[in-house]
Amino acid sequence: MVDGFVCLMGKNGSGKTTLINTLAGFYDVDGGSIVVDGVDVARLEAYRRGIVVVNHNSHLPNMEVEDHLVYGLKLKGLSVDRAGVELVKSSLGINYHGKVGKLSLGMKIRVALATALLSRPKAILADEVFSSLHDSVAVLESYKKLSREWGVDVLYTTQSVDEGRVADKLYLIEAGTTRLVHSND
Per-residue pLDDT tens for 21-33? Predict the structure, then answer.
């Protein structure tokens, strides 16, 4: 499915979000397979896939930032690594406190991206979120570095060529058809 830091680039309506939602298990597949770590997860329930989706609504507005960041860890019953939390916060420019719902959209997205990474899933699917950040390419570079260090694969969607260039593999999707246009392999 996802291997490394992968970008799916395409115009509005090209199928990016549909593909993300299908990979995450929100939509059923008619045929074929979705393979994660050598296992076909196409028929697994969404919560068993080890995938976290981040979109513009991936935040819990009434939660404090610090609690939000470790929410995924606590759901999984994992211990909180304070040094890891501080590293992710620093790398993504998260230096604010208070309720997540009071933050700007860009700050909410940074918190959601950090929360996803800190929960240590198999893969993160980020749907058009980096484009909402004023320093999107720099945040993508930081997220790429963190995801590699933490062993988490990332698939992100965008319409921005500059954002697409950060990926290890860049796929273009047009009318539901995907083709590889760049690979660092």
Answer: 888 888 888 887 7
